[in-house]
Amino acid sequence: MTTGFPGGSADGKSAMPANARAALEALLDRLTHLLRQGASREAEELAARGRRDFPLSGELVRLHGIALLQLGRRNDGLSALHRAAELAPDSIEVQCNLANVALEDGRPEAAIERLHATLARKPGHPAVLQMLGVALRIAARHEEARETFAQALRAAPRHPGLRLNLAEVELEVGDAGQALAHVREALKLAPRLDAAHALLGHALQAQGHSADAASAWLEAERLAPREPRHAFQAARMLEISGRLAEAAEAYARALRLAPHSGAALSRLAGLRRRLADWREQASLTTRLREAIETGQPGIVPFVLPLEPFDRVLQRKAMETFTRTIEHHLAPLRQKLAFTPPRPAPDAPIRAGLLSDGIGDHPIGRTVAGLIDALAGLGGLELHLFATNAEDGSVVRQRLAAAAPLHAVEALPPPQVAERIHAQGIEVLFDLTGYGAHTNADILALRPAPVQVSWLAYPGTAGAPWIDYILADTVALPPSHREGYSEKVLSLPRCFLPLEGCAMAPPPTRGECGLPATGMVFACFNATATIGPETFARFMHILREVPGSVLWLRAGPAGVEQRLRARAAGLEVSPERLAFLPDLPHADYLARYALVDLCLDTLPCGARITAIDALSAGCPLLTCAGDTFAGRMAASLLHHAHLPELVADDPDTFAATAVRLGRDRAALDMIRTRLADLRPHSPLFDIAGFAADFRRVVQTIGTRHRIGRPPIDLDF
């Protein structure tokens, strides 16, 4: 709660005898040292005793108040600070401390008012200006904050902290270049300041230089090795840069320093799964469960579907996660105060799709046929908002030809929200969820009055800014609805749209490193979904089907070696594992012609890979899980009229795979049936899906127009 500038409170020391002044100075120095060391209890006891000898020392009372606040004794701490303000009305530190308490209480405007009053008495004081800038930032008054920090910097041009404050504001308004310039100036003034290197990492990250950002945070960690945030941020940039093993080590370092960090714990658990590094997996899962149950913040959503957590626990985790975002963005949402559009009663509903996959991306390929079909129906005005850069792909061109496409990838979240609102969007679909390019900071600003989660996070968003989730009664049965914070829109068909796709000519088995004969099982799901239990089940199937192989998607460096070693430990020859490298989509789809049976994973199953398999005419075996993430493939198979490929439990799944693996004729019959069903199954009826989708949008859009709240709706 210090300002970072020299103190100036008047304690009437000049009226004291010299020995009393010396004793008070020594006491204040000792208290300051204890507070900096985090010895709050010792500081509080010392200050309480000291106040008996020096009851009129405003600075002593102030330090006592800080110690009380650090101990969680808020009322006593505030009382002490207000008494300090009476004793030392000109104390900058006291006023800044009181303003800081207001900020911690979520009252930035009260802090701003207090600091303006202080500036009236101390015009141009850099400490007050610095604190005012912080308060204005929290209140989302970024332009005022920028000017305030600049004014403070003119008064104290060699203060590196002010340079960093100004850099932070520049980042928030989207000027990463200017932010970088301020950080570099701060580093000239304080080259060993770890906070400056950390902010350098943020600025470099904003410019897309993740490898350089990682180096900056690693340097910050070297300078302050006990600060867990540096190791954590370095890990994030190492992960984005593809240096996954180094990232896992950095997350582990952060977790050792901050064992209650939900962010470090969950990211380490998720990354270990991506690497098929199952060391301590059971322990990490247990710690995650305990963290969620106790409401520990910071647990990232993407790890939850990978863990054996039920719907209630997942909802609790998601609501804890989004609560932080909601609190952080509430001031900015209130400032923007978007007014819902008021279209003419007969005007078509304006809908938007917000995604980082508008292009040659699984999401772009999934919705392209739907967008084309909607363009021919009318009664709906659709807009696409792309948070990813132009990729020059045929898919991107196709999407842009079918609907207005707004490229917003270079804009900060508030400006994206303003663009969406400016288009009069009434129903906004989030197609991204909480991945690397999450839209949460956009959606929490409420740019549209009705917001829907679809093809995004495979479960509840847990967010007050999401009104509906678009699903179906297989992926999300009525009995599961208590696990969802949003209202459920149930389509009469699978919630995933399927369209015919172009495939390259199939290669030979030899060209793919597969044996000339024998059953080919495949699982092209992400490595992170193949946990130790699922992998053991796969190895059981291979042992029971002689001559069979398992074809997996290639993962990060080291994954192949780990999985082969694990197979050997489960009495399966490592050579019975084959790995599929990254390929162009048409070439990848062609490989399904060589697959006899695709195997799904639990607790997080296939979605896009299930679409790919069925679109390519390849049978897929799944097990209906207990969460949305574990029921997506079951929905696809149910609506494809292939319920016999949906097992009720893992044991039945394994037994069915073994039985089919020993009976090629049965598999050939299923493949033939899948081909025969394609022209007639509602699963492949993209025109029918478009009609149902339009009906959903018109229904929920009309409900909003006439002032009706969201409700569960079955179509």
Structure description:
- The structure is a single chain.
- With 715 residues, this protein is of the alpha/beta class.
- Among the domains are: 1-157, Alpha Horseshoe (Serine Threonine Protein Phosphatase 5, Tetratricopeptide repeat); 349-493 and 692-714, Rossmann fold (3-Layer(aba) Sandwich); 510-684, 3-Layer(aba) Sandwich (Rossmann fold).
- Helix content is 53%, strand content 8%.
- The strands form two sheets. An eight-stranded parallel sheet has the order 3-2-1-4-5-6-7-14. Strands 10-9-8-11-12-13 form a six-stranded parallel sheet, with helices on both faces.
- Helix 18 links the parallel strand 1 and strand 2.
- Helix 2 runs antiparallel to helix 3 (58-70), helix 5 packs antiparallel against helix 6 (108-121) and helix 12 (210-223) packs antiparallel against helix 13 (228-240).
- The protein is globular and about 105 Å long.
Secondary-structure map:
Layout: H1 18-36, H2 40-53, H3 58-70, H4 74-87, H5 92-104, H6 108-121, H7 126-138, H8 142-155, H9 160-172, H10 176-189, H11 194-206, H12 210-223, H13 228-240, H14 244-257, H15 262-274, H16 281-293, H17 311-336, E1 349-355, H18 362-375, E2 380-386, H19 394-402, E3 405-407, H20 413-422, E4 427-430, H21 440-443, E5 450-453, E6 468-472, E7 487-491, E8 520-523, H22 532-544, E9 549-553, H23 559-569, E10 577-580, H24 585-590, E11 597-599, H25 608-615, E12 620-623, H26 632-639, E13 646-647, H27 650-661, H28 664-677, H29 686-705, E14 713-714
